Amino acid sequence: MSTSSQSIGSSNSEFRLPRQRMVERLRDHYGIKSERVLRAMLDVPRHLFVPEALSSRAYGDHALPIAAGQTISQPYIVARMTELLESDERSRVLEIGAGSGYQTAVLASAAGQVYSIERIAELAREAQARIRSLNIYNATVKCFDGTLGWSAHAPYDGVLVAAGGPHVPEPLLAQLKIGGKLVIPTGETREAQRLVRVVRTENGYEHEDHGACAFVPLIGRYGWESNPENKN
Ligand code: SAH
Question: Which of 73, 87, 100, 109 is catalytic?
Fold first, then answer.
């Protein structure tokens, strides 16, 4: 267990029971097998990442609204995407779409170093503050267009995109290590996607389909155009 998750665990006994039930559901109903991921889901206090009025619903089997019209993903999606990255304590991971910072905290527990990008300044600031207040020091959140990747820290063992784009952004493929894994929802419309995992091999990139999903849109240079009408 990393230092960060130990300090989270010891300072966080609130909502322990609902969190344990959530982890049982992930294991027994959803078939999440990675002990590393299940432990991370048990460690991170999800209720601190949702609006206070919704904290009693934080461990339910659903996504919830956060600020700026965005959402915190359903626990299953967070666990599944993290599992697909197959990270360990040596992994350097890039996350696009920090949102509340919840997935960032889960990644920080499951991987070695996490670089996270969020395009909405208010969310990036709050996500970073939550991460720090939980004494997580191996994750950083910055505000810019994540479809460009973050070349300063590349190449990455894992890239996790938490918003749905029309295709896999080129810069993210280029910033992946050989053997590295990229997980992203992609689809022809803004509303519905397939969860795709791309594995970089010596010879190129292998794409796998991991089923239907629905994320908020990935907005940026290699994503969808911004749409002022719904403030995305
Ligand atoms: N994983 C998050 C959920 C994020 S919702 C959580 O656990 O709370 C998806 C986020 O992606 C939104 O906050 C949205 O603003 C952000 N986003 C969309 N396009 C982006 C881009 N090009 N770069 C960075 N963030 C982006």
Answer: 73
Residue 224 lies in a domain: no
- 73 classed as catalytic: yes
- Kindly state whether residue 229 falls inside one of the protein's structural domains: no
Among residues 79, 109, 77, the alpha carbon closest in space to that of 93 is found at: 109
- CATH code assigned at 120: 3.40.50.150
The pLDDT tens digits of the residues spanning 33-90 come to 999 999 999 999 999 999 999 999 999 999 999 999 999 999 999 999 999 999 999 9
For 62, residues 6+ apart whose C-beta sits below 8 A from its C-beta are 74
Range of the domain at 170: 5-213
Round to whole Å and give the CA distance between 26 and 89. 22
- 123 Cβ closer than 6 Å to some ligand 1 atom: yes
In a domain, 201, yes or no: yes
Domain count, the chain: 1
- Ligand 1 atom at minimum distance from 100 CA: 8
Q: Indicate the pTM of the whole model.
A: 0.94
Cα 97 to averaged position of ligand 1 atoms, centre (Å) = 3
Residues in the chain: 232
